[in-house]
C-alpha cells in the first residue's frame, strides 16, 4: 500500500450505500483511504458492506446514518468522523434525490427536499470540514453535480436549480481556498445507470410499451451521444485524479463526464 494515493487519508462520501456514491467510495478505498459511508438501506446489508470493503481493500470503514436534510445530524456525522478517524480529508458530496414535474405542478415539499439534500447539505458538510482541512493545508472537496448543473431539462426545475447552485458553491469555495492546499471541484455526470435512472428507464418502458433495453437506448439517444452509460467506476477514477498531486491546480472546475451530452 506504500504507493497508493490516499494512504492515511479519510474520505466521507454522502449517499454512498449504493450507486455512484458506493462506486466512488470503493475507488477511494482502493487507493488506501479509510471510508465513512452514509446513506439509507437495510441495516444488515450496510453492516455487510462495511465488512466487505474493509476486507477487500485493507482499510477502515464506518457508517453514519445522518439524514442529509437535517443540519444537526450532519454535524453529528462530522463529529463521528473526527472521533473515529481524526477528521475528514476527502469530502465527496454525492447525496441526491430527484422528482419530475412541471414547475406549476411541482409539490412544494419535493422542491424543499431536493434543495436541502442536493445543495444545502453540501454547504453544511463543507463548512464543517474546512477548518481542519485548512489547518492541515490539505483537503479535497468533490461535489457531485450533474450535466443538469450545466444545462437544463424540462420537468426537473428543482434538480436543475440545485445542481446549478452546487456548481456555484463549488466555484465560490474554490476561490476562498485558492491559496491553500485545499481544492474544491465538481464532477458533472451524464446518465449513470443508478436506481434513480433505472426508474426513468422503467417509467419510459411502461409509458411507451417497449422493452427495458429499448427504453435504455431511447433514453441515451435523447441526450448522450456515446450511447453508453457513464459508470460509477469511471467517476471514481476521476475523483482519485482530483485527489492527486497532479490536480492540485484544478480548482473550481465543473468537469463533465457525460458521453458528449453538453458538447451538443
Automatic annotation (TrEMBL):
Pfam family, one: adh_short
InterPro entries found in the cross-reference section: 3-OHbutyrate_DH, NAD(P)-bd_dom_sf, SDR, SDR_fam
Family under the similarity heading: Belongs to the short-chain dehydrogenases/reductases (SDR) family.
Protein name, entry field: 3-hydroxybutyrate dehydrogenase
Source organism of the structure: Duganella aceris
Amino acid at each position: 500500500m506504500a504507493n497508493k494515493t490516499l494512504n492515511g487519508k479519510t474520505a466521507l462520501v454522502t449517499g454512498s450505500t449504493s450507486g455512484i456514491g458506493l462506486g466512488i467510495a470503493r475507488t477511494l478505498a482502493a487507493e488506501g483511504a479509510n471510508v465513512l459511508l452514509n446513506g439509507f438501506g437495510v441495516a444488515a446489508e450496510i453492516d455487510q458492506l462495511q465488512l466487505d470493503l474493509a476486507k477487500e481493500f485493507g482499510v477502515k470503514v464506518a457508517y453514519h446514518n445522518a439524514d442529509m436534510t437535517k443540519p444537526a445530524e450532519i454535524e453529528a456525522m462530522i463529529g463521528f468522523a473526527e472521533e473515529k478517524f481524526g477528521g475528514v480529508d476527502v469530502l465527496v458530496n454525492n447525496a441526491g434525490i430527484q422528482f419530475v414535474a412541471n414547475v406549476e405542478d411541482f409539490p412544494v415539499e419535493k422542491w424543499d427536499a431536493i434543495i436541502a439534500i442536493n445543495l444545502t447539505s453540501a454547504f453544511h458538510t463543507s463548512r464543517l470540514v474546512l477548518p481542519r482541512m485548512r489547518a492541515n493545508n490539505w483537503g479535497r472537496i468533490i461535489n457531485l453535480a450533474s450535466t443538469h448543473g450545466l444545462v437544463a431539462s424540462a420537468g426537473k426545475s428543482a434538480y436543475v436549480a440545485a445542481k446549478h447552485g452546487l456548481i456555484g458553491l463549488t466555484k465560490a469555495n474554490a476561490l476562498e481556498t485558492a491559496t491553500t492546499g485545499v481544492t474544491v471541484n465538481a464532477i458533472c455526470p451524464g446518465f449513470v445507470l443508478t436506481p434513480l435512472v433505472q426508474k426513468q428507464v422503467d417509467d419510459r418502458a411502461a409509458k411507451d410499451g417497449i422493452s427495458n433495453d429499448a427504453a435504455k437506448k431511447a433514453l441515451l439517444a435523447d441526450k448522450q451521444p456515446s450511447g453508453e452509460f457513464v459508470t460509477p467506476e469511471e467517476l471514481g477514477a476521476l475523483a482519485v485524479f482530483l485527489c492527486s498531486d497532479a490536480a492540485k491546480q484544478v480548482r473550481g472546475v465543473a468537469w463533465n463526464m457525460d458521453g458528449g451530452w453538453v458538447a451538443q
